[in-house]
Amino acid sequence: MSVSEFNIIQRYFRREHAAPGVTLGIGDDAALLMPTPDMTQVVAIDTLVAGRHFPEQTTATDIGHKALAVNLSDLAAMGAQPLWATLALTLPDVNEDWLAGFSEGFFQLAGRFNIALVGGDTTRGPLTITVQVQGQVDASRALRRDAAKPGQHIFVTGTPGDAAYALQQLQAGEPVADELLARLNRPEPRVTFGMALAGVAASAIDVSDGLLADLQHVLDAGACGAQLNVDAVPRSPALQSLDDTTALACQLGGGDDYELCFTADADCVEQVYRAAEDNALPIAEIGIIEPQSGIRCVRDDGSPYSPTVEGFDHFRDTDG
Ligand code: ADP
Ligand code: MG
């Protein structure tokens, strides 16, 4: 390597800024962090592998953004406030343009949510990015999957399916509209809204594998089922030109949107809508939790609908 590991860290990752609770950040053997008294630590980690979690042609800036965004999304789904991040970077070579772009994408997003990069590791190998984030939440207000209970209303933020449609177009070699591509490459973690839902909503999950698959995780944890009105799932303008079955396949089965799917007791629904309005974030009520296991999809007129998709599972799909 022409640039030493030390120089990479100094040049691209060591940013001095006063972050809450950071006694000692990058530069020592480990970081010293001070949690807020009476708050519970929330920890999540996600790895992005080139060609697997993002197309090979994805720009470094987008990769930097996405590596942090998918982790912030996990904190959002717990209702947690982001505090600190660590970054394990495996690089095939030292490409300073790439590093500059990557760190720009990473720190732009980090700055918006005031999350500090406090450490990491840098190695050589096939391009792989692991980010670990830490945040905090009042444990009694955390959005746990096992809090889903019959009678609760099911909501989703934004327009799920956009990222999947963008990927489909990319893979088919078709041109992709900028706004649609941004839904794949620059997902917006619903951090502020997630924090607003803490203590208001019951359960939450971020949609990374597909709405149905992710909702099923919530239902498994809560030992319940759901009725879902597929016509109530918002469809973005980009998907309007598709036939209904294809559009629904994207909306119900497409991953990578990082929208929040959450449930709330009937007497909290008003507060949920107020939180959405405060955050200028569109939400939609898409179903109801029921005691009987499984997801029963229906249309607006109440007739049953059989979705043509299952959620994406890294160990179930054929290309491993
Ligand atoms: P050690 O050999 O003791 O693990 P390293 O040389 O790996 O130390 O790391 C030196 C310092 O730089 C540590 O504080 C570590 O957390 C930080 N660091 C290393 N790589 C990164 C990275 N990609 N991003 C942020 N901090 C990093
Ligand atoms: Mg190390």
UniProtKB/TrEMBL annotation:
GO biological process, one term: thiamine biosynthetic process
Signal peptide: none
The keyword ATP-binding is annotated on this UniProt entry: no
PurM-like C-terminal domain: residues covered: 149-296
EC number: 2.7.4.16
Entries under Pfam families matching the protein: AIRS, AIRS_C
GO molecular function, one term: thiamine-phosphate kinase activity
Chain ranges of the PurM-like N-terminal domain: 27-137
Protein name: Thiamine-monophosphate kinase
Species of the source: hydrothermal vent metagenome
